[in-house]
Amino acid sequence: MKPSIRIAVAPALLAFACFTTSAWAQTTAASDSTATPSSAASAPVSHAQKHADFVEKRIDDLHAQMKITSQQQPQWDAFAQTMRDNATKTDQAFHDRAHKLPSENADDAMKSYAELAQLHADNMQKLAASFSALYATLSDEQKKIADPLFRNDHAKGHAGPRKHRPAASAPAPASN
To answer: Please, how many CA atoms are within 13 Å of residue 59, restricted to the half-sphere of its CB?
Structure first.
């Protein structure tokens, strides 16, 4: 990849990582350690397929962790489909932007980034609505499991707290 393209695409990829992470919460270290390499390692896998595989794994992990019952399955299916749809739309938007970005001027690039941010906001609204319908069907025990999963409480032990840390104080100026 040419350096100019890399510089232009880097902010978009960073935003994509932030957007998708907030939507699907982080996986636990235990679930990451049980991941096995793909049996189709000999064939190259597209980014979109890798992302779709990640989404499916996340859906499966959340389903198991939250102990979804057969009565809750219709709400779960709607939530899972929203996750899939959001991932597909986001992947396509980033792909489209990456192809157009090298020929865009600064104004167009800023507008395309704003479109990505709006897509993320729209996707999160859809995800929140479908999750609310699911959450309303959860038992108290399931809610106790879900609450930290979607607050990313478990991530604190892995990457440190997600709060902004205050900057170190500057030394006091020397008095004359």
So the answer is: 20
CA angle 41, 46, 49 (to 5 degrees): 90
Give, as one character, the DSSP assignment of residue 126.
H
The whole-number pLDDT of residue 34 equals 43
The domain spans of the chain are 3-17+47-155
Q: What is the pTM of this model?
A: 0.63
∠ CA 54-35-120, rounded to 5°: 20
The pLDDT tens digits of the residues spanning 12-27 come to 444 444 444 444 433 3
Distances (CA, A) of 119 to 35, 104, 116: 30, 19, 5
> Quick one: tokens of 153?
């409480």
Distance between CA atoms of 124 and 143, rounded to whole angstroms? 20
Instruction: Please give the mean pLDDT across all residues of the chain.
Output: 76
Interatomic CA distance for residues 72 and 169, integer angstroms? 51
